[in-house]
TrEMBL record:
Record family assignment: Belongs to the YajC family.
Protein name, UniProt field: Preprotein translocase subunit YajC
Pfam families xrefs: YajC (PF02699)
Transmembrane residue ranges: 16-35
Domain of life: Bacteria
Subcellular locations according to the entry: Cell membrane
UniProt KW keywords: Cell membrane, Membrane, Protein transport, Translocation, Transmembrane, Transmembrane helix, Transport
Taxonomy of the source species: Bacteria, Bacillati, Bacillota, Bacilli, Bacillales
Bilayer topology: Single-pass membrane protein
Length: 104
């Protein structure tokens, strides 16, 4: 369709860029405002999930706080209190909780 337009207007390439330019500009804006930040967020989340280890305090997506007792490639067993152990998928971990006392 663009080539037909260009042929009808005498083949002026400036007219094609006038039509295509805004779409390219919109894609670039969407990339830097939406796609790239989401990719960075996904990368940091995957890094956090890979770095989990036994003894880490975590919060699940549902808001449950617990300590990791066992961890495998796709399953995490959390200790919620002294008696209760719950099994979750590794992807259901929202974030790791670090306190100032733990970091010292």
């Amino acid at each position: 369709m663009l080539f037909q337009y260009a042929a009808a207007t005498g083949g002026n390439t400036a007219d094609i860029w006038t039509l295509v330019g805004p779409f390219i500009l919109m894609f670039v804006v969407f990339y830097f405002l939406l796609i790239r930040p989401q990719q960075k967020k996904t990368k940091t989340r995957n890094t956090m999930l890979r770095a989990l280890k036994k003894g880490d305090k975590v919060v699940t997506i549902g808001g449950l706080h617990g300590t990791i007792l066992e961890i495998s490639d796709d399953v995490v067993v959390l200790r919620v209190n002294d008696v209760t152990k719950l099994t979750f998928d590794r992807g259901s971990i929202s974030h790791s909780v670090t306190t100032e006392a733990d970091s010292k």
